[in-house]
Amino acid sequence: QMQLVESGGGLVQAGGSLRLSCTASGSIFSPNVMGWYRQAPGKQRELVATITRIGSPNYADSVKGRFTISRDNAKNTMYLQMNSLKPEDTAVYYCNADTGLTNYWGQGTQVTVSS
Length: 115
Fold this sequence. Notes:
The protein is mainly beta. It has no helices and eleven strands.
């Protein structure tokens, strides 16, 4: 069964940067689609960005131009480079992997952006 482990969260000031990583294990095959979601206190979980096996990205409008999603299929690792961070980016960020049969979620990593 696939396991996802996120890392890279932390506390930064507005305008700063963070790089999140998510490594998938327990599967021979790279997930069809991987993505980052986030959930702020009192809000629903929302899509941040997704990326296909061939590297086609998709971004939420709120992060376009600031975040970059990438993946290394050989390492089963996905990244999210977060630049020009804003206080509204504060949330728990979750890694998601879609194998085509089911979705898997990581435990989440906290990102806090202070003003």
